[in-house]
Specification:
Radius of gyration: 23 Å
Helix content: 40-55%
Strand order of the largest sheet: 1-4
């Protein structure tokens, strides 16, 4: 019989030392960004052409389907077939495959991976505040920050086409979206780490700003959505993603 002493780790065993993480100063971060921009100019992100050996988009979807619940795959395909925008929503893998061959700055982050406009919404924080933010992280992974920005910007363009917006209107929406991203990043770059951590968009203040330009019908719809959003929290996700077994969840 093996004793506990024989299976216990040796007394001399020590935990591995913590990995040192370099913290750059604001000036060093700015210099790093300028160097990355010189290597990959902003103009290089404005062009895209299919790669010579581009994977077949349908083949990518079929490959991805092997890891999904078989009974739900036809449902997913049916939803994607409704419109170009619904196809785009379900085609994160296809876009990631296309973006893999595009220029990148080399600055990686923990990206959403599927940052289209429908994956932003209102939900309740643990403090019961209504927040507006990304609400879907199924595809999250370390990757180039540019991929999230490009996927979000493209979603505005495609959704605008789906809703009948003119080319001029779509261009204005896309330009406003990326301009807001740029300005917010400039603000974050000058902020302290804790200020960035606690930064958020509080819905009540946002609604007050938008109320002046919204119609009564739009305001009523927004209020109904806010009421529904109060139920979107961790407990809702817990009840949705689990089930009871012998009286216990």
């Amino acid at each position: 019989m093996t004793s506990i002493a024989e299976t216990a780790p040796a007394a001399t065993t020590r935990p591995a030392p913590a990995r040192s993480v370099a913290h750059l100063s604001p000036d060093e971060r700015a210099a790093r960004g300028r160097a990355a921009r010189n290597e990959t100019p902003r103009s290089s992100h404005g062009r895209w052409a299919p790669a010579e050996h581009r994977p077949d988009p349908i083949a990518l979807l079929e490959e991805q389907a092997t890891s999904r619940v078989p009974e739900l795959v036809p449902v997913r395909y049916g939803r994607m077939m409704v419109s170009p925008f619904t196809f785009y929503r379900g085609a994160a893998l296809i876009m990631a495959s296309d973006l893999a061959a595009t220029p990148r700055s080399g600055l990686n982050a923990q990206i959403c991976g599927d940052a289209h406009l429908s994956n932003f919404g209102v939900f309740a924080s643990p403090e019961r505040q209504l927040m507006f933010d990304i609400n879907d992280f199924d595809e999250t992974a370390p990757g180039p920050w540019e991929w999230d920005v490009k996927r979000l910007a493209a979603s505005f363009e495609i959704a605008g086409r789906d809703r009948g917006f003119t080319p001029e209107q779509r261009r204005a929406v896309v330009a406003a979206g990326v301009a807001e991203y740029r300005e917010r990043m400039q603000q974050m770059a000058a902020a302290r780490n804790l200020d960035v951590w606690y930064a958020h968009i509080e819905v009540t203040k946002l609604f007050a700003q938008l109320e002046a330009s919204a119609t009564k019908k739009q305001q009523a719809k927004a209020r109904a959505n806010l009421t529904k959003a109060r139920t979107r929290d961790s407990m809702q996700a817990f009840s949705k993603l689990t089930h009871e077994v012998d009286g216990r969840r």
